[in-house]
Sequence to fold (124 residues):
Amino acid sequence: VQFVESGGGLVQPGGSLRLSCAVSEVALDYYAIGWFRQSPGKEREGVSCISSSDSSTNYADSVQGRFTISKDYAKNMVYLQMNRLKPEDTAVYYCAADIEKRRCSSRWGTLQYWGQGTQVTVSS
Fold:
């Protein structure tokens, strides 16, 4: 099973985008699900996480206060609302499940079900 990301695009600095990740019902029920990003020449970065157990969330310092992660059980979707976008947010964004835990923590476990990613470009 692979997750499917969508919603990327080109946006001006200060703009907004909402990314979507189509997941499985099992993943929503049992795994913490995260958004990650990677830009050329940089390591992959964990952006945000949402727990299956209590829907608690966490965020990277670089996006805290600007990004919001959420999920919709009826649609089996996880979203990443990105506001006040900056050029440094430019990257390919991916979602994946941490199959070792239900609750988000400071460290990622085994990540699976990576999608193909969606490109976000922030530029004027």
Summary: The mean pLDDT is 95.
